Structure formats: C-alpha cells, structure tokens
C-alpha cells in the first residue's frame, strides 16, 4: 500500500493498494466519529461493492444507510443533489455522521458537494472505483454538479477526510471505461512527467496500477498544496478540459468525460503546433499516446459550436479564458486567451 499525505485547508491521506475495501470501517473510524455512514453510490457500482462496503462499515460499529442513483453524468444534476439532501434529512444524518462516496467521478463530485452543503458541512470520504476518480477527481476537494449551461458550474472546494483507493475495484471496469480514465493519467504525464509519459507509451494498458495512480496523486497533491482554490498553477490541471467540456456538452453528455478530454488535448496540441508554441513532434507524440490507448483525437463538432459552449466554462474570467497549452512533454504553460480569439484557436486545432 502507498500512502500519500495531502496538505490543504484540511490534511488527509490518500491510501492506494489492493484489498482496502475490507478496511473501510476501520479507516473511517480513524478520521470520523462512530455513528451513521451514509453511502452514496450508483447503479453500476452498488451491485458490485455495496454489500462489502456495508459489511466493512458495520463491523466497525457504524450504522449504514444508502442512496443509490442511476449511473451517468445526467444524474450529476440539481434535482439529484436536492434528492440526496432530502434523503439525508429524512434519515436524521447529523454533523457527527459521515458520507461515503462509493463510485466514480460523478458519485464523488455530487457526494462532495452534498457533504459541503448539508448542515453547512459534514465529514466525507472518497472510495473511488474508476481510474479517473482514483487519479484525479477524488483528490483535491473540487466538488460540483452540472447545470444546463455546462459542467461543474455549481460546486464548492471541500476536502475529504480520506481517500481510500482499492486497486482491486478497478478490475471490474469494462475496458472502455478503464481506457476512459487513462486520459487523466496521460494528462498528468503531458503536464509534468516525461518519464511517466514514456512508461505509458511502453506499457499501454498494462501499466502498474498502484505505482502509476500513486504518481498521479503525488503530482496533484503538490499542485493542490500550492494552489488549493484554483487561482494559479492548479489551472494547469485543466489541460484539455475547456475544449473537452465543450465537446462533452455538444454531445449532450453522451460522450464520456475521458474521451472528451482526450479530444480537448488533441485540439490544444494541434493549435499549439500551428501557433509555434510546441513542435510538430510534440503534437505527434500526444496524438500517438492517445492512439496507443485507443482514445479519440477528433470531433465532428465545428469550431463555432465548441466556441459557443466554451463561453459558459466556469474558468472564464470576464473577457478571457485561460487555456493550458503544451510546450513539450512534461511542460505546459497557461495562456490567457481573449474570448474573441478563442474560436480561431479552436479552429487551428481541428
């Protein structure tokens, strides 16, 4: 097991290893009071791991209740958020109780926002069950729900008490979903770690899960410690996301987040090469690694469509949006871009 300590407004550990779900109750007891654990999960994850999670919690003395919602981004919604809040109220959850987010990014994001706002904040822990959640969304305290206008437009910065990542849980993922999460791992390698990039190019899907996940969490830990509230260097973690979110929105969220981010990274790399920010060789390497993992690099949507969706991106500040642009593998820059120039930038990358 690897343990990575995160220092933010609240300090906590990210524990990564095999067989950790059976320790859930004992681990929760280290960071919260024994009381009621409200498990929030979805219809994909609960049938696989719900019984084991309940057993682990109850063996440590917790009473459990659970709220299960249909899987999918469409349920990271205001309506579902309010439904969960009402569920907690009906079940008399108090400030001394805890929320356990058992699932992928959608479950983690909405559970964290619920935890941040129910009774003005109660304890919660993340138990990620997807690659994307393990390496990215479960760490760092970003919580959110989607609005009609775009992704993650309502949310809060709210750190968990613990992230418990059982790598065995990733074995049940369909290969397509596993690949999907790998787009975030690729993102970290392009941003910060050329050695990790080389490892991924060599090993493909056969990479060592514990060590690669731990490396990504270390990288995110370092960024969050410097810029918890996303006003400076943490913005680099949005590589591929501004345009990726636009691709996702234009698909009516039928395209997965990971695939959309992959397309976003490809578009930004293409534009960066045309603008002379990175070499054509760097662009080619990025396209090659996406192909290695069988992730998409193109979209049918036009620059105009993507531009209009990007105008609703939460990272927009007044008349500009900050894009994350690669210079070389392992090094990216923040590029404030006037809104009126954004469409041309997107067009250059298509």
Keywords:
single chain, about 350 residues, alpha/beta, Rossmann fold, Dehydroquinate synthase-like, alpha domain, 2 domains, 3-stranded antiparallel sheet, 13 helices, about 45% helix, globular
Give a written overview of the molecule:
The protein has 350 residues and is of the alpha/beta class. The protein folds into 2 domains: 171 residues, Rossmann fold; 153 residues, Dehydroquinate synthase-like, alpha domain (Up-down Bundle). The chain contains 13 helices and 12 strands. Strands 1-2-9-6-5-3-4 form a 7-stranded mixed beta sheet, with helices on both faces. α5 packs parallel to α6 and α9 crosses α12. The longest helix has 18 residues. The radius of gyration is 20 Å and the shape is globular. The model has no long low-confidence stretch (mean pLDDT 96).
Layout of strands and helices, then pairs:
Blueprint: E1 2-6, E2 12-17, H1 24-31, E3 36-42, H2 46-59, E4 63-69, H3 78-90, E5 98-103, H4 105-117, E6 123-128, H5 131-137, E7 142-147, E8 150-157, E9 162-166, H6 175-192, H7 194-203, H8 209-226, H9 241-250, H10 257-274, H11 280-292, H12 303-310, E10 316-317, E11 320-328, E12 331-338, H13 339-349
Helix pairs in contact: 1-2, 5-6, 5-8, 6-7, 6-8, 6-10, 9-10, 9-12, 10-11, 10-13, 12-13
CATH class bucket of the largest domain: Alpha Beta
Task: Please give the CATH architecture of the largest domain.
Answer: 3-Layer(aba) Sandwich
Principal-axes shape call: globular
Number of domains: 2
């Amino acid at each position: 097991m690897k343990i990575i300590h995160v220092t933010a407004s609240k300090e906590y550990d990210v524990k990564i290893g095999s067989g950790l779900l059976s320790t859930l109750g004992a681990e929760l007891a280290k960071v919260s009071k024994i009381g009621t654990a409200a498990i929030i999960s979805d219809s994909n994850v609960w049938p696989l791991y719900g019984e084991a999670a309940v057993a682990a919690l109850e063996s440590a003395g917790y009473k459990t209740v659970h709220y299960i919602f249909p899987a999918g981004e469409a349920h990271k919604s205001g309506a579902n958020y309010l439904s969960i809040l009402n569920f907690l109220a009906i079940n008399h959850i108090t400030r001394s109780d805890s929320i356990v987010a058992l699932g992928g990014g959608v479950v983690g994001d909405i559970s964290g926002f619920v935890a941040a706002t129910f009774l003005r904040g109660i304890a919660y822990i993340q138990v990620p069950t997807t690659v994307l959640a393990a390496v990215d969304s479960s760490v760092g305290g970003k919580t959110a729900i989607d609005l009609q206008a775009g992704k993650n437009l309502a949310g809060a910065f709210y750190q968990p008490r613990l992230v418990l990542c059982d790598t065995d849980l990733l074995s049940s993922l369909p290969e397509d979903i596993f690949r999907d999460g790998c787009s975030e791992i690729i993102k970290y390698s392009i941003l910060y770690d050329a050695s990790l990039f080389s490892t991924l190019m060599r090993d493909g899907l056969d990479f060592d899960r514990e060590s690669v996940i731990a490396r990504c969490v270390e990288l995110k830990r370092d960024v969050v410690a410097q810029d918890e509230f996303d006003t400076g260097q943490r913005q680099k973690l949005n590589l591929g996301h501004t345009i990726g979110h636009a691709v996702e929105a234009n698909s009516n969220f039928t395209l997965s987040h990971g695939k959309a981010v992959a397309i976003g990274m490809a578009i930004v790399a293409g534009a960066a090469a045309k603008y002379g920010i990175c070499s054509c060789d760097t662009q080619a390497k990025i396209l090659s690694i996406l192909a290695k993992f069988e992730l998409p690099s193109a979209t049918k949507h036009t620059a105009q469509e993507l531009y209009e969706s990007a105008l609703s991106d939460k990272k927009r500040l007044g008349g500009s949006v900050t894009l994350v642009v690669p210079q070389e593998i392992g090094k990216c820059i923040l590029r404030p871009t006037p809104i009126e120039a954004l469409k041309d930038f997107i067009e250059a990358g298509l």
